[in-house]
Amino acid sequence: MSIVPEPQTGWYDEAMTQDGTQDGKEQTDGRGTGRLAGTVALVTGASSGIGEATATSLAAEGATVALVARRKDRLDSLAARIGAAGGRTLVVEADVTDPAQAADAVERTVRELGRLDTLVNNAGVMLLGPVVDAPFEEWERMIAINLTGLLACSHAALPHLLAAAEDSPRQVADVVNISSVAGRQARNGSGVYNLTKHGVGAFSESLRQEVTQRHVRVSLVEPGAVATELGGHNRPEIQEQMRARFADMERLAASDIAETIEFIVTRPRHVAINEVLIRPTEQVA
Ligand SMILES: NC(=O)c1ccc[n+]([C@@H]2O[C@H](COP(=O)([O-])OP(=O)(O)OC[C@H]3O[C@@H](n4cnc5c(N)ncnc54)[C@H](OP(=O)(O)O)[C@@H]3O)[C@@H](O)[C@H]2O)c1
Asked: Does ligand 1 come within 6 angstroms of the Cβ of 97?
């Protein structure tokens, strides 16, 4: 059983409403038209932030969504909210850094929901600060979650995604990998986060070339600053620096990224959105 450190509350989670929904935005813009009806999606890191918003969006489009993360209480409450809105979910408590748990999460999804059409590799952690004298354990955590977790889920899911692309009425399946602006641009103070997200980009492009002609689309989403819990796992002095950097900036909401992912996976079979870089308008670099 893994011990999950609770992120400290603060500037980074101001977008969360008291009932835990993302940024209080209701989906009243005409979406939710059932474009993913009959499909099954698995979203890692669905207990908060971008993953929670993405699971909500995909379920609103008719997908049955496997909610994967370690904090089961958060997954249960998300499942209840999606269920109340008429959606279907499967709660899967798993630590994706353990390849066996990642594989079990995928197999349980396919066993209980019958198939897998969409994998959103979203679980991640961002621990910033100088390389010199950094706690080595922080680097190991980032590599374990951002790389090993993504690889383990992809490895287990790909046979099912290839089968879905062949057999399903839609004849297409999707892997959406969540990278970052940090996956395109290295910065002083985010060396190992840069390493992991550049790795996600390289792996995604290689995998895309391997499977695209079998109609498994591989998409890379690279957000800039999004108001989530992500920064809350950093040391206090690093959080202070982040606060200063983003103080005057209107950051993206998790729902902005969820909408992007929803757009990607609802394209017709012949359209593959390979890469999306999405920053807050006020974010320069
Ligand atoms: N927020 C931003 O500014 C930003 C910008 C660019 C990219 N991103 C990327 O977006 C992704 C989502 O981050 P977020 O901003 O939504 O942050 P978040 O709210 O902290 O969400 C991270 C999610 O990852 C899950 N997770 C962490 N370790 C896990 C593990 N070992 N096994 C399973 N799940 C695990 C967490 O769930 P549990 O703790 O319950 O396991 C949580 O649901 C990350 O890959 C991040 O790098 C974020």
From this structure: yes
